[in-house]
Design goal:
The chain is an alpha/beta fold. It has 2 domains: about 250 residues, 3-Layer(aba) Sandwich (Carbamate kinase), CATH 3.40.1160; about 150 residues, VC0802-like. Bound molecules: aspartic acid and magnesium ion. Magnesium ion binds next to loops.
């Protein structure tokens, strides 16, 4: 008997047929004596549709109202799922975020959960009821409805799991596992049985879209075991098999980690590179460039400053492609004239490819293997950043798939670890 949270994504909730199938799966767990709390997303496409309606009225609508609107997608889902469960003879009860006592801050459209009053969920499961909690939302201290940002139902589910100290949070989704890399790019990509929370966190921040990054953050903070698994298996699959399928996100101290040095390869097409040429090579320069970019609310990712020559240097960095224009404008209009720099050059045909693995801490030569694999394919590296468990390179985007395939092979990810 276990206490578990099931999270179902938008695709899994995408039609009445699918919702009925989710209900049958939940009913199966319930009948087997497990205590289940369900957190579903809105039906697929619904959040976009709702926000689209608001956009038709105003391009910069009040974020409070956007949350008011977007949160309803999940409210419909929980009600439908409760009815589907009830028609199978299961006692079920739906709740919105505010009815569940999910307190957040007031950052509309990207609120953070502060606390959850989960006692009533535990009371329900102890009374044989399946509580169904809306994904993606809460309430701030003034009673405003807030949402947790796109993809936020993952975070809601993990937060609920943390609050009730669930044995596991099962994230049922349209992929059957976390893979060594995107199987659409590398046919040999393999599903991982386990991945450490730190690796998952890096992969999520580097562009893997399977889990919202905050959900991984939450899992790490509260040590919630999270499993990513398919919602498209037969709903009556044996629970013993189902509960071992997919990928379990574990903590490093757990013995059962696969011992590959590199766990996975992430890539991200959202980068753009900007270079400021001929800036004076003197103290405070980095600050004078990066400062105004930050003030314009643009995040900087990778940075490279070249060795100075004859008193000047080149300074390059990357930003999200959506903010490329804005960053270019700030540099052209403010920074270049202020510094007397020669020119600003932009390039949005770049992408970032990263290798991630906690094994990198204890193994040397990983970067060398990476750079050799890219060199062998004649791929030029434009920038490099490293951290303890990842190395990222910026390359021309037409080489992205080639780079990912070459690295996947070079690190032996095509083969299961020994
Ligand atoms: N429905 C929300 C979205 O589409 C939240 C979620 O599905 O996780 O972003
Ligand atoms: Mg999602």
């Amino acid at each position: 008997m276990s206490l578990v949270v099931h999270k179902y994504g938008g695709t899994s909730m995408g039609s009445i047929e699918r919702i009925k199938s989710v209900a049958k799966r939940v009913a199966k767990w319930h009948a087997a004596g497990h205590k289940v709390i369900v957190v579903p997303s809105a039906m697929s496409g619904e959040t976009n549709r709702l926000l689209g309606l608001a956009k038709e009225i105003s391009a910069d609508a009040d974020p409070r109202e956007l949350d008011q609107i977007a949160s309803t997608g999940e409210q419909v889902s929980v009600g439908l799922l409760a009815i589907a469960l009830q028609s199978l003879g299961v006692k079920a009860k739906s709740y919105t975020g505010w009815q569940t006592g999910i307190k957040t801050d007031s950052s509309f459209t990207k609120a953070r959960i502060e606390s959850i009053d989960a006692q009533h969920l535990l009371d329900d499961v102890n009374n044989g009821i399946v509580p169904i909690v809306t994904g993606f939302q809460g309430v701030d201290s003034k009673g405003n409805i807030t949402t947790l940002g796109r993809g936020g139902s993952d975070t809601q589910a993990v937060a609920v799991a943390a609050a009730i100290k669930a044995d596991e949070c099962l994230i049922y989704t349209d992929v059957d596992a976390i893979y060594t890399t995107d199987p659409r790019v590398v046919a040999e990509a393999r599903p991982l049985k386990v991945i450490s929370f730190e690796e998952m966190f890096e992969l999520a921040s580097l562009g893997s879209k399977v889990l919202q990054i905050r959900s991984v953050e939450f899992a790490g903070k509260y040590k919630v075991p999270v499993r990513v698994l398919s919602s498209f298996t037969e709903h009556d699959i044996d629970i013993a098999v189902e509960s071992k399928s997919g990928t379990l996100i574990t903590f490093e101290e757990d013995e059962q980690m696969e011992q590959a040095v590199v766990a996975g390869i992430a890539f991200n097409r959202d980068e753009a590179k900007i270079t400021l040429r001929g800036v004076p090579d003197s103290p405070g320069i980095a600050y004078k460039i990066v400062g105004p970019i930050g003030e314009a609310n643009v995040d900087i990712d990778m940075i490279v400053q070249n060795i100075g020559e004859k008193g000047t240097t080149d300074f390059s960095f990357t930003v999200h492609r959506n903010e490329f224009k804005k960053a270019m404008e700030v540099l052209e209009s403010q920074v270049r004239p202020a510094l007397g720099a020669k020119e600003v050059v932009g390039d949005d045909k770049v992408c970032k490819v990263s290798i991630v693995g906690i094994g990198m801490r204890s193994h040397v030569g990983i970067a060398a293997t990476m750079f050799k694999a890219l060199a062998d394919e004649n791929i030029n590296i434009q920038m490099i950043t490293t951290s303890e468990i990842k190395t990222s390179v910026l390359v021309e985007d037409k080489y992205m798939e080639l780079a990912v395939r070459a690295l996947h092979k070079a690190f032996g990810l095509d083969q299961p670890p020994a």
